[in-house]
Amino acid sequence: MPGMDNIDGVLGDDEDAADNRPRKKRYHRHTPQQIQELEALLKECPHPDERQRLELSKRLCLETIQVKFWFQNHRTQMKTEIECHENSLLRQENDKLRVENMSIRDAMKKPICTNCGGLAITGDVSLKEQHLRIENAF
């Protein structure tokens, strides 16, 4: 095309011209040293400010946006792990309460007299009659 500076004389891939979408960046895997420094700062300061992110990005040869997203992703991951652990504890507590509830229901079906240890009388029997029966049991 006239008026366009094109060194190679080629406009580019046909797909790119048709899509007009920016190319997706390739996945970047951090080095163990970068991860170690990022994790150290995460423990010290889980929400670094812009200045801290800029300083860290320069030191680790990363873009500031990479540092920002790394912290964001790891805070989310930590939150998810904590919630999973808490859910596990709540599930265990719920199971204990369910077992206790079932044993209480069973006990209510067969009430035992606290005085004599025999079967308690329930239903339409008056309180006075219950006391008389307890006295008779003695």
From TrEMBL:
Keywords: Coiled coil, DNA-binding, Homeobox, Nucleus, Transcription, Transcription regulation. Residues 22-31 have a biased composition (Basic residues). GO terms for molecular function: DNA binding; DNA-binding transcription factor activity, RNA polymerase II-specific. Residues 1-31 are annotated as: Disordered. Coiled coil: none annotated. It comes from the Eukaryota. Residues 21-81 form the Homeobox domain. SMART domains: HOX. InterPro entries: HD, HD-Zip_IV, Homeobox_CS, Homeodomain-like_sf. Residues 23-82 bind DNA. Belongs to the HD-ZIP homeobox family. Class IV subfamily. This is Homeobox domain-containing protein.
